[in-house]
């Protein structure tokens, strides 16, 4: 797996052949199939911006790590553009230590482009906005986002998918896990604009609380201005079922170990996508330290 490190708006490593980086924009060439993931790290960069363009007919998996131990306010504005008939699997891992962080991420899918997006948020305090525009016919997105909060940390995750072309597909699954006095707000909005026939929009939002003081709020919203579409949404909030905990405790685990095992099961689809072993281990350890 090739790695690109960006710090102070400069690349510190070599970039893969035919990649172009200029004016905070990384362009990935067209007509390419990348069998191995590309990892990009924004390292201790406050107030950073980055645009990634995946050119036509290219397939790639990108792991973007946004990491900073700086206690000052962090602001990031990120863009990913998937050109016609490109296929992008994209994993975002946010690990910010500041007490105030804003992460705005915009995605654009052109004609017959597909996006498989995964967001793992284990920052202290963050407001994250994930905005997807399906601008080309046949464009599709599958979005999965997980936020984990503990102590007195507040996280707000806004996911918006807008269907701006016909025959598009959007599906989001957002999970919030809160422990101690942690608070998470999950807003899932999907909009089908007028005239965008045969669009498909689906949402699942789930909140899990592991203490009486934790709070998870989920808000699934569908905005539909067209009749000839398919759409559906659902939301649940609650503690882990007692019978699941009882079964694991009967097998020798204590209650906290049982909770961690069940929650790691929810997170496994994301964990499995982190090809970088140190990042995967750090993500798992951070999650477990919060639950």
From TrEMBL:
One of its GO terms (biological process) is iron-sulfur cluster assembly. Residues 48-266 form the SUF system FeS cluster assembly SufBD core domain. InterPro entries: Fe-S_cluster_assembly_SufBD (IPR055346), SUF_FeS_clus_asmbl_SufBD_core (IPR000825), SUF_FeS_clus_asmbl_SufBD_sf (IPR037284). It comes from the Bacteria. This is SUF system FeS cluster assembly SufBD core domain-containing protein.
């Amino acid at each position: 797996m090739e790695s690109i490190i960006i710090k102070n708006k400069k690349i510190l490593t070599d970039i893969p052949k035919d990649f172009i980086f200029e004016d905070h924009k990384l362009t990935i060439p067209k007509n390419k199939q990348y069998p191995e993931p590309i990892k990009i790290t924004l390292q201790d960069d406050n107030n950073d911006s980055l645009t990634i363009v995946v050119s036509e007919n290219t397939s790639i998996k990108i792991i973007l790590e946004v990491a900073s131990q700086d206690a000052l306010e962090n602001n990031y504005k990120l863009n990913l553009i998937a050109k016609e008939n490109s296929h992008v699997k994209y994993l975002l891992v946010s690990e910010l230590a500041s007490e105030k962080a804003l992460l705005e991420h915009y995605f654009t899918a052109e004609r017959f482009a597909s996006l498989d997006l995964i967001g793992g948020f284990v920052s202290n305090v963050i407001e994250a906005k994930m905005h997807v525009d399906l601008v080309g016919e046949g464009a599709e997105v599958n979005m999965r986002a997980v936020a984990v909060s503990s102590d007195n940390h507040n996280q707000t995750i806004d996911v918006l998918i807008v269907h701006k072309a016909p025959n598009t597909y959007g599906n989001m699954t957002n999970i919030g896990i809160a422990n101690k006095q942690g608070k998470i707000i999950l807003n899932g909005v999907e909009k089908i604009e007028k005239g965008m026939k045969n669009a498909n929009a689906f949402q699942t939002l789930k909140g899990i609380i592991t203490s009486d003081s934790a709070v998870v709020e989920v808000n699934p919203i569908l905005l539909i201005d067209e009749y000839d579409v398919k759409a559906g949404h659902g939301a649940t909030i609650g503690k882990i079922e007692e019978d699941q905990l009882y079964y694991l405790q009967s097998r020798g685990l204590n209650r906290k170990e049982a909770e961690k095992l069940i929650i790691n099961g929810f997170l496994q689809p994301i964990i499995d996508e982190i090809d970088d072993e140190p990042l995967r281990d750090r993500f798992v350890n951070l999650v477990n330290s919060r639950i």
